């Protein structure tokens, strides 16, 4: 599992099995792709209102729960006004 | 068991279907047909000239119990084995 | 092992990964490991209007276990080579 090394200390988006989206700074990971995020927030999407960010602080996510880890382009991220974005939540994983 | 057919175990059936069009039933009410080029022990598959059919049940606005289908084509497709329910060799189109 | 090798030959090619949560992500395959975890660069989510969640994401790591399909370009795949390699691997399974 060499492939997570490049994400350490970067702002990342985690998408979880239940459809949650969490952003944070990747503080570390291990070979089971368990991930520790610092300064993390959950982004809650809905069609009724803009994206709500709920602060979570230091967060450990079990590798089994992770669907995807994306590196956030901070230039794009800071240019986006989350309060204007309306979208359905990401569906949960169905096997 | 019929020794002349060369089929001793289930995977032999898939091996003998290489380069033939197969029918694959998948989880999530999906079916695909395609030409089988590779597989492994997890039933991961690689197929070409693929047509996927998704059965959509309970579509909004559709009469109760009616099944709608969505079809799409893909030229080359890897299918992860954990979604495979069955692989059936040619004959059926 | 066979499929892992196939994916390794596809690095730097554009692929579309469809996940079990119905998200489809197109990008350049940068790496793959033995669990078929996938690294994609330069990604684009299909139907971005419906799924704006990843608009600020430029590359990503996808867990192999959540992949439903990977759409490949036919020109990048030597089907004869694949079939031969598959038969060879099947033979080795029997011998063991």
Automatic annotation (TrEMBL), chain A:
InterPro entries: Lsm8, LSM_dom_sf, PTHR15588, Sm, Sm_dom_euk/arc. Residues 1-75 form the Sm domain. GO terms for cellular component: precatalytic spliceosome; U4/U6 x U5 tri-snRNP complex; U6 snRNP. Its main location: nucleus. Plays role in pre-mRNA splicing as component of the U4/U6-U5 tri-snRNP complex that is involved in spliceosome assembly, and as component of the precatalytic spliceosome (spliceosome B complex). The heptameric LSM2-8 complex binds specifically to the 3'-terminal U-tract of U6 snRNA. PANTHER family: LSM1, U6 SNRNA-ASSOCIATED SM-LIKE PROTEIN LSM8. This is LSM2-LSM8 complex subunit LSM8. The gene is lsm8.
Automatic annotation (TrEMBL), chain B:
The gene is LSM3. InterPro entries: Lsm3, LSM_dom_sf, Sm, Sm-like_LSM3, Sm_dom_euk/arc. GO terms for molecular function: RNA binding. Gene3D superfamilies: 2.30.30.100. Belongs to the snRNP Sm proteins family. LSm subunits form a heteromer with a doughnut shape. GO terms for cellular component: spliceosomal complex; U4/U6 x U5 tri-snRNP complex; U6 snRNP. Pfam families: LSM. CDD domains: LSm3. One of its GO terms (biological process) is mRNA splicing, via spliceosome. Binds specifically to the 3'-terminal U-tract of U6 snRNA. This is LSM complex subunit LSM3. It is found in: Nucleus. Keywords: mRNA processing, mRNA splicing, Nucleus, Ribonucleoprotein, RNA-binding, Spliceosome. Residues 9-93 form the Sm domain.
UniProtKB/TrEMBL annotation, chain C:
It is found in: Nucleus. Pfam families: LSM (PF01423). The keyword Transit peptide does not apply. InterPro entries: LSM_dom_sf (IPR010920), Sm (IPR047575), Sm_dom_euk/arc (IPR001163), U6_snRNA_Lsm2 (IPR016654). Keywords: mRNA processing, mRNA splicing, Nucleus, Ribonucleoprotein, RNA-binding, Spliceosome. The keyword Nucleus applies. GO terms for biological process: mRNA splicing, via spliceosome. Its main location: nucleus. Residues 2-76 form the Sm domain. SMART domains: Sm (SM00651). It comes from the Eukaryota. GO terms for cellular component: catalytic step 2 spliceosome; Lsm1-7-Pat1 complex; P-body; precatalytic spliceosome; U4/U6 x U5 tri-snRNP complex; U6 snRNP. GO terms for molecular function: RNA binding. Belongs to the snRNP Sm proteins family. PANTHER family: SNRNP CORE PROTEIN FAMILY MEMBER, U6 SNRNA-ASSOCIATED SM-LIKE PROTEIN LSM2. Component of LSm protein complexes, which are involved in RNA processing and may function in a chaperone-like manner. This is LSM complex subunit LSm2. It comes from Lyophyllum shimeji (Hon-shimeji).
């Amino acid at each position: 599992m060499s492939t997570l090394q490049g994400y350490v200390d970067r702002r990342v988006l985690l998408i979880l099995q239940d459809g949650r989206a969490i952003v944070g700074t990747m503080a570390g990971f291990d070979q089971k792709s368990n991930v520790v995020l610092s300064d993390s927030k959950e982004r809650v999407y809905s069609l009724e209102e803009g994206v709500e960010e709920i602060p979570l602080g230091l967060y450990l996510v079990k590798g089994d729960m992770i669907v995807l880890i994306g590196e956030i382009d901070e230039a794009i991220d800071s240019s986006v006004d989350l309060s204007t974005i309306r979208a359905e939540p990401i569906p949960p994983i169905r096997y | 068991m019929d020794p002349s057919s060369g089929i001793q175990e289930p995977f032999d059936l898939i091996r003998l279907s290489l380069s033939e069009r197969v029918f694959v039933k998948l989880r999530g009410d999906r079916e695909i047909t395609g030409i089988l080029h590779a597989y492994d022990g997890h039933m991961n598959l690689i197929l070409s000239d693929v047509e996927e059919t998704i059965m959509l049940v309970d579509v909004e606005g559709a009469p109760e119990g009616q099944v709608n289908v969505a079809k799409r084509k893909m030229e080359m497709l890897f299918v992860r084995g954990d979604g495979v329910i069955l692989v059936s060799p040619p004959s059926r189109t | 092992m066979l499929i892992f090798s196939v994916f390794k030959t596809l690095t730097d090619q554009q692929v579309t990964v469809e996940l079990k949560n119905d998200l489809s992500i197109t990008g350049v395959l940068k790496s793959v490991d033995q669990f078929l975890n996938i690294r994609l660069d330069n990604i684009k989510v299909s139907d971005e209007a419906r799924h704006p969640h990843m608009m600020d994401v430029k590359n990503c790591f996808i867990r192999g276990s959540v992949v439903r399909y990977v759409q490949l370009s036919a020109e990048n795949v030597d089907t004869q080579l694949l079939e031969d390699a598959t038969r060879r691997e099947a033979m080795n399974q029997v011998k063991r």
